[in-house]
Amino acid sequence: MFQTFGRFPDRWWNAWGRRTNFFNDGGKPKQEWSDGIPKAVVYPMQEVIADIGSEDDEEPRKAEALLELSGASVPLEEAVHLNDLLNRIFKWVPEERISLNDILNHSWFGTKYET
Length: 115
Fold this sequence. Notes:
Layout: H1 2-5, H2 10-15, H3 45-50, H4 62-67, H5 76-89, H6 100-104
């Protein structure tokens, strides 16, 4: 989540004493971490969605072929809605997360529900 959504809220960030081993004060990953730990990369949700299907094998296993076609990607308009939904769901502070009702009525689903 850190790589996708950025640094923690200030109260958690300031309480994390070892953060300087891995991140600068702005929350960006350091170029090299201590103790041989691989460095983190910034990987925003928009890029995660855009990469769906980009690493598929040319010949998917039988079970994978049932789920989606090899190389399938998310159309741009759908990607915009999915990105918005996931960014509203995955919030560090639970009180800032989208409600279940708002999730069910989000434009990504394309249908309105009454709860």
